[in-house]
């Protein structure tokens, strides 16, 4: 069945040239709406993709976009020949546009390539909701934090902007990148993961510039169709200075021309889509002048923050059962084992510094431990977690007795003295250590507070000390901004 696309323009020379190029590039039939009044008729039946040529359309681009979106909500909509304004691009993309081509990047070939990807993207878009319902998606979780991540992934897959995925080690950054690729219009190509700690500028350029004649012979890489490849840059913040310059140039140029082996023939090499993976905040590296500011803004067009497992309420047991079922499928000799209530409680109370990767290791070894003892249940001892090991879990130390050379929270002052206001709080009758902002940090000397309570107090204290500045408090706590907002909401912390 031949795919059909709709181009909304004025029907002039540019529109006709675009019609011919789309047919040559994608083999699609093209219907043209040369005025706003004819839009409804050409969108029935719904096409596979729509291109609004903003510079040639009669009427407000925003109004035309909304009208098309209402008539065919499931069809990818692209905009070309649009104003070269970041705010306008962001506004349209957030409203659901598949791609946005500004003036200077809206040749007939550019538009045809975008429409080709949009047509390919419609198939995974239709099946995405089914994939999540049937569990084909390997990202597992029902917590509010993960639902936000799923929504961001869905949006990232529909657009062609560069993405930054930030998360602690073991949170699944590579899995997010592969999911975005699989659900995007580039899923016909490959996704390559590049270790930025060792990659040279030359190798990085070879990987990014896809579709170049001779690339397979030079690099040993499989050459995909132009525009199909996704490149995930692991540890992107550790790119060398020269590699940063190469990446900046490639992202800036968008497309480059390379001569082919045939005389007089040119082949267009499109830049692969880039997804950066990082454990740290790249903006901090920019402030320290360790990462180029211009590269940061070209790379971080669409950020996704992955929450650590300890902040994914309710997901630990769901992930555990998912990993158990998958492990049994991979090892048929093992019998399915159930978790005891003690094992479930241990899993839920643990802080998971290694995140999902650590949980996977725990599940696999506990399954083997239960099988070795011929048991059909997994007990807390089978998990082999070390809660008192400082590598795995924070140690809750009892606060020392306040003295003349300590603060109320037990910290020794550099000059050995105690400010009068701290002495007053330390000598209080309640026995609690209280910060100047009135947030309690600890209780009786030998009392150990639950981890959730400690988290609540830490978040509240940071929020008060930063005078309600959420961004500042998030940086001080070394958590993401969205995580900070979720915790403020969860603990009902607000301005007095």
Summary?
The chain has 496 residues and is α/β, with parallel strands linked by helices.
Detailed description of the structure:
With 496 residues, the protein is of the alpha/beta class. It folds into 4 domains: 4-123, Response regulator (Rossmann fold, 3-Layer(aba) Sandwich), CATH 3.40.50.2300; 147-305, P-loop containing nucleotide triphosphate hydrolases (Rossmann fold, 3-Layer(aba) Sandwich), CATH 3.40.50.300; 309-383, Helicase, Ruva Protein, domain 3; 420-490, Orthogonal Bundle (Arc Repressor Mutant, subunit A). It has 20 helices and 16 strands. It has helices at 13-26, 39-42, 61-71, 86-94, 108-134, 144-158, 173-182, 201-208, 215-219, 241-253, 282-287, 293-299, 315-330, 341-349, 355-372, 380-383, 420-426, 451-465, 470-477, 481-490, and strands spanning 4-8, 29-33, 49-53, 77-82, 99-102, 163-166, 191-195, 230-234, 255-259, 266-270, 273-278, 302-305, 338-339, 377-378, 433-434, 440-442. The strands form 5 sheets. Strands 2-1-3-4-5 form a 5-stranded parallel beta sheet, sandwiched between helices. Helix 1 packs across helix 5 (108-134), helix 8 packs parallel to helix 10 (241-253) and helix 19 packs across helix 20. The longest helix is centred in the N-terminal third of the chain and has 27 residues, at 108-134. The protein is globular and about 80 Å long. The relative contact order is 0.07.
